[in-house]
Amino acid sequence: MENQHDDSKQSEGAQDNTAAPNGQTPGSARGKAVVGLVILVVVIVGAYYVTRRSSLVATGGAPATAAAITLVTSDRADLDCAAASAIQGFRCGFANETTAAQGDEQNKLKPYYTLDRHLYLIPGLFLEPAVAKRYQSELPNKPREQLKRFTANCQLKVVGKLSGVRLRWLATGTWSNPEDADVATIASCKIEG
After folding, report:
1. How far is Cα 76 from Cα 74, in angstroms, rounded to an integer?
2. Which of 43, 49, 82, 163 has the highest Cβ tally under 10 A?
3. What is the mean pLDDT of the segment spanning 8-36?
């Protein structure tokens, strides 16, 4: 009886090693599938890191943030902010509600909202080539309500947060209460509208 039991074990083992119709054993087919899956995962992870690294290089080290900023051309002169401090050489147009700060447009922060109502302080937005071209196509020489609203789809690099900022949405408007806002620079923009 013991001999019959050993024979049945040997015949079971022989069945496991039988070749599939394509000449592969079931174990080797599974092994190839696992290797293929591992290669696929490595390719996907590698593509993610290459894409992420490209966005980091394009924005100087910080990941790019997509932002759809809503504008009219009169925003260039109307929008302003006031804050006592600067961040990475960027400062608001006013040190406080009554004292204008010196500085070039490329370093002067201005407040902008995205379509999803996120506030950013951005220097020189109207100097970015796509936005500058849109500005030239409709100079703000008529009342603000007659200007066509457009969207600047931009890649931003957030450089920090500025605290205690007051905002003004019209050159003759009143200042808001102090708030905190993200400061970002422009990597690139495309215009809609």
Report:
1. 5
2. 82
3. 58
